[in-house]
Fold each of these.
Amino acid sequence: MIVIQNAIDAISLGAVYALAALGIGLIFSIMRLINFAHGELIMVGGFTLYALAGQPYLVMGLAAILVAAILALGLERVAFRPLRKASPATLLISSFAVSYLLQHVMLMIFGSRPMGVDFLPQLGDAVELGPLRVPELQLAAIVVTVISMTGLALFFRRSRIGVEMRAAAEDFTMARLLGVRANRVIAAAFVISGVLASMVSLYLVAQTGTVSYKMGVNMVLIAFVASVIGGMGSLVGAALGGFLVGIVSVSLQAYLPVDLRPYRDAFVFLAFIAFLLWRPQGLMTRRADMERV
Amino acid sequence: MSRDWQSAALLLAIMITVALLATLAPPAMQRTVTEAFVKLVVVIGLYIFVGNSGVFSFGHVGFMAIGGYVSAILTILPAKKQVALDLPPFLETLQLPGLAAMAIAMLVAAIIALLVAAPLMRLRGIALPMATFALLVIVHVVALNWQSVTGGRQALVGLPRFTGLWTAVGGAALALVVATIYQQTRHGLALRCSRESEVAAAATGIDVGRERLIAFVLSAVVVAMGGVLFAHFLGTMTANTFFLDLTFVTLTMLVVGDMRSLLGACAGVALVSVVSELFRSLERGIDMGGHVIEAPPGLQEIALAVILLVILIMRPHGLVGDWQLAWPKKKAKEGS
């Protein structure tokens, strides 16, 4: 029974990681930017919930999604568009700067102490599934992730801009030659990443009941790991990587000796390094990403 | 004298001038200058790897932490260690003079860097910087939880504060000399070659992974020295000091000047330190004819991030760019 319980924990945690990793993977696949500021999109979504506390939950949630999407769009326009031709390393540093900037803007406005937010606390209740007790939040995480992924898959296959986005991820220059508008595609990708980030903030706030200006940092570090494991630039890979990291985290939590458990994250990152040495290109690699001379 | 040594000599002269000026300033200002010199040690250490290889490392602050903690354990009074930590008896009773502790701390950092980097340097492309991120997180998690050795979430206090102005200047000078020597060796030149084109370097027979490893270990040692100086400057160690924020600040210092030259690294430290100090004094409040104007906390960090972004966008090669320090040129003799 404990195994099944752990499996449910792993899948639900993996689902959240997968959402975060998808946001990062999507941006990377199109413009080679590892967006460290994705964590701050999550954080700003959380603060939107805080600012609207007391409103109906639906209003709070929709506002968080909207604000994160608009912010993502704004970041692209102000910070990342001028750097579009820069190297991936420069882009990473600049997203680091954006992240630091947003964190301290929030620190300036709201202070450094974590603040309580009342958002869907009833999700903490557990559902009895036979002998298992599963918190509703975990089920919600799984359901939301499945719906988002299905939606994304449909979007990429059916909508014009989705197809353009895939083409841009495959070969950006070629796509532009064939009439894909770079600005439109990249802007759309940022909006989607903002929406994905806000889903993560809904989960985090419902789970912890608090927001703080550093709340996105841990999640973004994990999402990095997940998207690199999946193979930077592959969306299926990013999702897969997210689930894999979730499974590894929960297994370590469950099966590490008790006095080593506080070091769980160190082991997760150690496993990540070991994985990189084994398969530096990640699980899913696209031909376009192979280095050529 | 080679171009590199000319530049180093002039930088050294500027550093000593700044330090002499600082001795005339009030103590608070002196502390700021001391801190800047300590950061300079770290940034020069970072430059040895990042500047020469062109590969970003987000893990070097981890070596600062390792240096700082090792030195802390070796220098704190045994009685205090007994209360705060839970060390093996021989470490608990040990109390070394500062220099010996620093040497051991640097040695420990070298060994760890060698063990860690030997496999990592095989990685290529964006995988390598990502792996250094993982390194930082691992050191941080260990420092945060290894209660018996690092004090865990509590601050480790009682480090002798032996980092004064001239200690810091001495450290920075040493780092500068080491970096200057390194970049003129075969290894330094080979690594810089690989920075311009990894493929071309490999084709001329340069073992890029090996050259990166050498630079990584050397830079980890210098950064660890900076960590030791920083720890004994603050007098306390907390795990959270050595995490993403410090990583960001040191990388900013390296990038805003010009990460490909020592002059750029020094200029970056100077610029960031001056800006930080300006905003810090704003945050303390300025008396303007009875009205105290006070900037909210956080403004300093925001300014720093904005400066970095603007420089990345407007001047991708940093403020200094390709400009070099050298002796003034002698006028050409007439008729020659």
Amino acid sequence: MKVVRVSLILLFLLGVFWFLNLLVSPKYIESLVEGSMISEYYDSPKNHEVLFIGDCEVYANFSPMVFYEEEGISSYIRGSSQQLIWQSYGILKETLKYEIPKVVIFNVNAMRYSKPVSEAYNRLTIDKMKWSKEKVEMIFSSMTEEESFLSYVFPILRYHSRIFELSEEDFTYLFQRRQNTFNGFLINQNIKGVESLPTKRPLTETRFADITYEYLDKIRELCEENNIQLVLIKAPSLYPYWYTEYDEQIKEYASKYGLDYYNFLENILEIGLDYHVDTYDGGLHLNLHGATKLSKYFAPILKEKYSLTDYRDHEEINAYYQKELEKYYREIGRGV
Amino acid sequence: MKKVFILGIICLFFLVGCGQETIQTEEKYSFSYNNMEFVLGDVFTREKFGTEIEYSEVASCAFEGLDKTFKYEHYEITTYPDGEDDRIYSIYLLDDTVPTKEGVKITDDVSKMTEIYGNDYTQQGESYLYSKNNTTIQFYTSNGVIIGIEYSIVMDN
């Protein structure tokens, strides 16, 4: 009888502990929505021929809805803020458990970062990932000195002070999620044109760090093993500066391994980008208008070069995209 | 009496130690120009530093707040948000008319830099970084000649 009582008390305490962990964890639904993007993928139908991985330069600059509307391409963006290359590798590995796309597109901006940048960005990418071997590896490779693995397992260790700052969002989304993106694309319709940019600093290191090459190799090898075409891109963000020395190294790497590399900074005129109106933050990210232009430019290239399927003829997938497109245009009309 | 003496000596050591530490923590890299003192981490206002000739804002990927850059004729100040204030994050010198407080300027060679700042630097490619109490001064060089100088504050993540 005593054993039962003790067990019940223990069970109750465990339940309270679990609930508190859930309660204090940031929900990333109404504020810092960038933190929910990685997990939105789990709810999406797994029918993608194209997968984007990388930092904010993918989730802000490319619209899968436009890809579909223009060429019937089914794609998903698993991007997150300041996604580091070892995180992109982990996300790719995890995604391959769910589906094998035909093409993986990696935005090479992350090559400039050879070590974890900040805990805040790590959290946005990792916190809401499902538990897996990849998540554990990613935590260990991403942690800054101040972070601990246990705080990812038990968020209360990190977020206990939030208990005094809980908002309505914390209760509303305690047991539910809301879609904030369209296949990983985060809409931003604001306009803040480029007026001027900070002075370009001389490069301190002209060669990318070995660790970034190591992970680029891993991404490439993983794609090869799964018969996936890896494509490298550099989104047309004007800042942080993409140095010629960086570009040359990527061109060299792409040529060595027979990969395609698209540096969209070289195609600004053809794309029709106008940085006075097509960016929401002075040249770092494109707004909806700019992303639409870039996606319309890239869609036929993708379709033709990689012989992608036109899913507009596929009943089930088309029905999904038509529903999403309806929501997409409703969202745009509303002015997000 | 002997015990009191030893205790006194120990206290003296502690006091001297504390005093030295206080002096050290106050030593930071800072820049001055036209009788204006630019201290990293201080609140930036146009009233104090004048109106810039160019202004740009850089947002972070997800978080609120803007890093602002104020470009003047000979230097560029970048600030970081701290509540309602903007604090000086970095000062980037743009030409050879503005030397550092210690007397090194763009176009000087690396030997002058080491003569004045010493050899306790971290080298990354062709740049040299000196650190002092959460502030840094970085010399960007090319072929042994200084082509850029930047003061920065070390921020916690």
